[in-house]
């Protein structure tokens, strides 16, 4: 590792996409401020970047992360930044999630032509998303409004997906607010989708900073960038996902948020949804209780809500692999 020389640059492994570079750049700046050491970006190509298959069909989780993890374990880089929602729920023993910084907006947004919203899009509008979770909830929403929409499977980076609207191929696309914001295009969102209607992916909007467990001094330093409430929230969300035995491409949404009085946070609410991609069936549940006192308590909360969802028929919906 690099810590033998306290002035040597720290090597931050990153994917080449605009989003990954933006996220890595933000974290690099924080780590520079924290350590006083230079941080060097090392570009790495992952399978998720080169594959042309629909993400839901590649089958495995973590297509964006394995090459970064290989580089960490090979000692080619010192740390890596991931979108937490792209990380598999099981953590390898030899890698540490050293920090989960304060999460930004977890919501999905609509980017529609002509400033339209979900409610003002004309009948039969074509809405692009490659995510079974988004399809299920958009179709359920349309059914509830007595409206007809068509969800169209797309993939590609954020610029490509927004491009389907600007070039006139689609009426709208749905994206994560956080990603759009990080690449400087949040101004093009025409509607922020309330989690009451569309729950985001578990961990959406949060970053994960990972390093090798053997690099204990670096892990301890990076831990200063951790936000404990964000970590509790995403731990519960990901525990729910794991307990439903669902991968990152499954039609599962989850969001934990905090409530309290007089500035003090006292309660955490966890909401979860699973559905069929046609939106004909959604199992959506919520639980609220004291802020989990530990990582173990957050895991237990996610498992408990998942068990309730399975009781209500979620198991039958998990088998479905979208498109
Ligand atoms: N699926 C890819 C992906 N992974 C993370 C983000 C956005 C950033 C985040 O959620 O932190 C996106 C783009 C999107 O879903 O629109």
UniProtKB/TrEMBL annotation:
Domain Porphobilinogen deaminase C-terminal: 232-310
EC number of this enzyme: 2.5.1.61
Reported cofactor(s): dipyrromethane
Positions of post-translational S-(dipyrrolylmethanemethyl)cysteine modification: 248
Residue span(s) of domain Porphobilinogen deaminase N-terminal: 10-215
An MF annotation (GO) of this entry: hydroxymethylbilane synthase activity
Co-factor: note: Binds 1 dipyrromethane group covalently.
Alphabetical UniProt keywords: Porphyrin biosynthesis, Transferase
Domain of life: Bacteria
Pfam family, one: Porphobil_deam
InterPro entries xref list: HemC, Porphobilin_deaminase_cofac_BS, Porphobilin_deaminase_N, Porphobilinogen_deaminase_C, Porphobilinogen_deaminase_C_sf
Record has Cell inner membrane as a keyword: no
Chemical reaction(s) catalysed: 4 porphobilinogen + H2O = hydroxymethylbilane + 4 NH4(+)
Function: Tetrapolymerization of the monopyrrole PBG into the hydroxymethylbilane pre-uroporphyrinogen in several discrete steps.
Family: Belongs to the HMBS family.
PANTHER family associated with the record: PORPHOBILINOGEN DEAMINASE
Subunit relationships: Monomer.
Miscellaneous: The porphobilinogen subunits are added to the dipyrromethane group.
The protein, known as: Porphobilinogen deaminase
UniProt source species: Streptomyces abikoensis
Lineage: Bacteria, Bacillati, Actinomycetota, Actinomycetes, Kitasatosporales
């Amino acid at each position: 590792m690099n810590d033998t020389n306290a002035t040597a640059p720290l090597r931050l492994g990153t994917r080449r996409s605009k989003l990954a570079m933006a996220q890595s750049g933000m974290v690099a700046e924080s780590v520079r401020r924290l350590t006083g050491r230079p941080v060097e970006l090392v570009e790495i190509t992952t399978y998720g970047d080169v594959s042309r298959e629909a993400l839901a069909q590649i089958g495995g989780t973590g297509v964006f992360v394995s090459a970064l993890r290989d580089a960490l374990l090979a000692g080619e880089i010192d740390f890596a930044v991931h979108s937490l929602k792209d990380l598999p729920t099981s953590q390898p023993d030899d890698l540490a999630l050293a920090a989960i910084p304060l999460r930004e907006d977890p919501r999905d947004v609509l980017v529609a032509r002509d400033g339209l919203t979900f409610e003002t899009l004309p009948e039969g509008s074509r809405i692009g998303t490659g995510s079974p979770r988004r399809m299920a909830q958009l179709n359920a929403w349309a059914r509830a409004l007595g409206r007809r929409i068509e969800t169209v499977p797309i993939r590609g980076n954020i610029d490509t997906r927004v491009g389907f609207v600007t070039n006139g191929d689609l009426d709208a696309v749905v994206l994560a607010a956080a990603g759009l914001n990080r690449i400087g295009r949040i101004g093009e969102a025409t509607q922020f989708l309330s989690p009451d209607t569309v729950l985001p992916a578990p961990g959406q909007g949060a970053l994960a900073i990972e390093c090798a467990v053997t690099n204990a001094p670096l892990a301890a330093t990076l831990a200063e960038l951790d936000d404990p409430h964000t970590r509790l929230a995403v731990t519960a969300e990901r525990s729910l996902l794991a307990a439903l035995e669902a991968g990152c491409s499954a039609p599962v949404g989850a969001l934990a948020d905090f409530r309290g009085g007089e500035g003090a946070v006292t309660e955490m609410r966890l909401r979860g949804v699973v559905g069929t991609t046609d939106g004909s069936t959604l199992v959506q549940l919520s639980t609220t209780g004291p802020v989990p006192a530990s990582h173990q308590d957050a895991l237990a909360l996610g498992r408990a809500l998942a068990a309730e969802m399975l009781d209500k028929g979620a198991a039958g919906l998990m088998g479905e692999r979208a498109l």
